[in-house]
Specification:
543 residues, mainly alpha, elongated
Length: 543
């Protein structure tokens, strides 16, 4: 009875009430959402009652915020700052006149790193930028350097949050100034992204805060692609130059930067995400033309970005990324010039098609057509061909049956065309491992014809392949009849020689032949001759 009571109690504990939406005013949000919620006019959103709108020419966001913080924050550092800043910030014209001194004061007290004073100081930096507009450009580099240094070195979590909030606001408000050339800003942010030794979460926050600007550059690419091309090329070049054994964090930071820029809200793709991914591919492809081998960090970056997108974005939203991969017009040319390109391309496709059984792919026919066209035009080395054939096998196994049937002609080509015959057995083994049902339904008939017609050229490989297919359940025992000429050849071989008389490699081959005979149908005469040749002779042991 006690046991039943305990079981019932555990059952009650397992039954959980569905979670409800939080009503807390203060809860964590990723920086991407914080940036999206920022307004170009933050004062109107937070402190609109403090702005004197009756005189737009002289009212100041900075002064309104300063007056409020002077009442709310009585820390020693901020009180000293306020005493010096208030006399020179009565109006907007006065602030413009004393902008250098005000900026110097802000940076001086920020560099003191007194936690109790940092929240108002960082808030005032944003308001000063709001007041100055384009005039803030000459102070931007100093301000960003000071704030990034503070975020990287300060131990207080709140200070880190205030710092990145400030940066995010600056990036959004000054986007028109920054987007035409993001390279100087990126050089300032690179140490936070992991170029220098950094806490992993700092690299992630830096990437998330800057992703807004990368999306901005991508969204304007239809009018002017130069800003996007410059920054993507600069990022990838800097990653290659900085590539060392300790650059893993930097690569991860750059991956987060691209993923956050490509991803939209929730599990959808951003409206400019496909444009940005296309630029990543284009810059990577350009490296194939400049170098004998593509830089390894670029291939890792591309693959890691795709894998992260697969994890975050649903299949329907991911289709534009697949279209970008499939619709590049230089695939075959690059694959023939640079075999490593074909390996990268096959790795991209393999990643997308193999994750969750191919559920991320919504249109399979274009994928199969692209792979077959690439294979048909390929004249690259053996390893590249094998990789692409594996990609086709995965696609043909994971796609809907209707798409697989419509592309079954290529399987016949693999079995019959002299160009593809050397790869056919290996392809069959890999295809069978992926799924026995489609192997039996779509490929087995071609395998049987290949076995009957070309056994004399691939007898050693068949000795290995057939027993494996039978033992794994992909092929039923005695499904295939051993061709009569091969039966005669095997019987003659065993009749003339004894295994114990031969060297070890021939013995292994004989062993393979015996396994082959056990899984295929053979004539009784062949069986008798082989058994006769295998009869034990004592005089061999007495030598």
């Amino acid at each position: 009875m006690a046991g039943k009571s305990r079981t019932a109690h555990l059952a009650v504990r397992k039954a959980r009430i569905p979670a409800t939406t939080s009503t807390k005013n203060h809860r964590f949000e990723p920086f991407s959402q914080r940036i999206a919620k920022l307004k170009i006019d933050p004062l109107r959103r937070v402190r609109e009652h403090q702005v004197q709108t009756n005189d737009g020419a002289t009212s100041s966001y900075f002064r309104s915020a300063l007056d409020e913080w002077a009442d709310r924050n009585l820390s020693e550092d901020f009180t000293e700052f306020a005493k010096q800043a208030i006399p020179i910030s009565d109006s907007l014209p006065q602030i413009v006149h004393h902008e250098q001194k005000i900026t110097d004061l802000l940076l001086h007290y920020i560099e003191n790193k007194k936690t109790v004073a940092l929240e108002p100081l960082l808030d005032l930096v944003a308001h000063l930028a709001h007041d100055l507009g384009l005039r803030f450009e000459k102070h931007f580099a100093r301000v960003v350097s000071a704030i990034t240094s503070l975020a990287a070195k300060h131990e207080d979590v709140e200070v880190i949050e205030w710092s990145f909030n400030c940066l995010a606001w600056l990036f959004k408000y000054l986007s028109r100034l920054l987007v035409p050339d993001l390279r100087p800003l990126y050089d300032l942010m690179a140490p936070l992204l992991g170029k220098e030794r950094q806490k992993p979460f700092i690299a992630r926050f830096a990437a998330e805060s800057m992703s807004f600007l990368l999306r901005k550059a991508a969204s304007h690419a239809s009018k002017d692609n130069q800003p996007l091309h410059l920054i993507v090329e600069h990022i990838e070049h800097d990653l290659c130059v900085s590539a060392t054994g300790k650059s893993d964090l930097y690569e991860q930071g750059v991956v987060v930067l691209f993923v956050e820029s490509i991803q939209g809200s929730q599990s959808a793709l951003h409206s400019s995400g496909a444009i940005l991914f296309h630029e990543m591919l284009s810059v990577t492809f350009e490296s194939f033309g400049k170098e004998k081998e593509p830089p390894t960090p670029l291939t890792r970056l591309l693959l890691a970005t795709v894998m992260a997108l697969l994890d975050r974005i649903d299949g329907a939203s991911l289709q534009p990324i697949m279209d970008v991969i499939l619709n590049n017009s230089q695939h075959i040319e690059l694959a023939n010039i640079h075999p490593s390109y074909a390996k990268l391309y096959s790795s991209l496709l393999f990643s997308i098609m193999s994750v969750k059984g191919g559920s991320k792919v919504t249109a399979w026919s274009p994928v199969l057509e692209k792979i077959t066209s690439l294979l048909s035009g390929l004249s690259a080395e053996k390893d590249v061909t094998v990789e692409l054939l594996k990609v086709f096998a995965v696609a043909h196994q994971n796609c809907p049956l209707q798409d697989a049937i419509s592309h079954v002609k290529f399987l016949e080509t693999l079995a019959s065309d002299s160009r593809w015959r050397p790869y056919f057995l290996g392809f069959c083994m890999f295809y069978a491992e992926l799924g026995k049902d489609r192997f039996k339904d779509l490929l087995l008939s071609h395998f049987k014809r290949f076995f009957a017609s070309h056994w004399n050229n691939y007898n050693e490989q068949l000795c290995l392949a057939l027993p494996k297919l039978v033992s794994s359940g992909r092929l039923e025992t005695s499904t295939l009849s051993l061709p009569a000429p091969w039966q005669k050849e095997i019987a003659d071989d065993f009749s003339k020689h004894h295994v114990s008389d031969e060297i070890s490699d021939v013995a292994y081959y004989r062993s393979g032949l015996l396994e082959l005979l056990t899984v295929t149908r053979i004539n009784s005469d062949t069986k008798d001759r082989v058994l006769s040749g295998l009869q034990f002779r004592p005089n061999h042991c007495n030598r």
